[in-house]
Design brief:
The protein has seven helices and six strands. The site of one 3-methylbut-3-enyl trihydrogen diphosphate has 10 residues, from α1. Magnesium ion binds next to loops.
């Protein structure tokens, strides 16, 4: 429960980490951890919708995660495909939008077709906006944006002097989404692992030893209460 008077942030971003260790500690294959992690994601998204959070962004698969064994990658992609199918059926009824963030060019076409469908359905909803980072890496995102801006400059569409921080933000995958106020990393690691490096400039960082499959609504509420005690100065006094 979030005590009365506690202000909910506008945007929470989560690194869904610790699935593999959760499974290994139970003598299960890592893929069982990803299945359990997908369930946690469903529960947390439902909770975020219930408490009236405007934006939730989750890190589901990084540009570096392709280094993993093929069977593990396949399982994660299959879980994401199932989630998209499920979202397609329920998102309008639940008034939730879904946006996939990252480089979609490397994703299989059936997955991309599903993404196009959920993008269309998202236009009909105005509740929680869920962003799933899939084949996402902040350096890759910034590199793609810089290339697009360089092409525009070469074509005379933008002048070098017009390239401001806001302009760069508008060319990232997260264009139109406010920067995260709170970034939560469960899974006992204290790093960002190439997550939202540009957008995280003034985010509050909450680290937790809980492995993602064990992360629950109560812990999310604790992170929100912790966030509400932070004094954000944005460089001021
Ligand atoms: C996060 O859990 C899921 C992905 C990165 C796809 P991990 O699979 O990284 O779990 P650990 O960190 O190995 O425990
Ligand atoms: C970050 O977790 C990526 C996701 C949760 C999708 P990793 O498990 O890939 O991060 P590292 O390798 O521990 O930094
Ligand atoms: Mg990990």
């Amino acid at each position: 429960m979030i005590p009365e008077g506690v202000k909910i942030p506008e945007h929470i971003a989560i690194v869904m980490d610790g699935n593999g260790r959760w499974a290994s500690s139970r003598g299960l294959p890592r893929t069982a951890g990803h299945k359990a992690g997908a369930e946690t994601f469903r529960r947390i998204a439902t909770h975020c919708s219930r408490i009236g959070l405007p934006y939730l962004t989750v890190y589901a698969f990084s540009t570096e995660n392709w280094k993993r064994p093929e069977a593990e990658v396949r399982t994660i992609m299959e879980l994401l495909r199932r989630y998209l199918i499920e979202a397609r059926e329920k998102m309008v009824q639940e008034n939730t939008a879904l946006r996939i963030i990252g480089d979609q060019s490397r994703l299989p076409e059936p997955l991309r077709a599903l993404i196009r469908e959920t993008d269309e359905l998202s236009k009909r909803t105005n509740g929680l906006r869920v962003n799933v980072c899939l084949n996402y890496g902040a350096r890759d995102e910034i590199t793609r944006a810089v290339r697009a801006i360089a092409r525009d400059a070469a074509a005379g569409k933008v002048d070098a002097g017009e390239i401001t921080a806001d302009y760069i933000s508008s060319r990232l995958d997260t264009a139109g989404i406010p920067d995260p106020d709170l970034i939560i990393r469960p899974g006992a690691e204290h790093r960002l692992s190439n997550y939202l490096l540009w957008q995280a400039a003034y985010a509050e960082l909450y680290f937790s030893d809980t492995l993602w499959p064990d992360f629950d609504e109560e812990e999310l509420d604790r992170a929100i209460v912790w966030f509400s005690t932070r004094k954000r100065r944005f460089g001021g006094v």
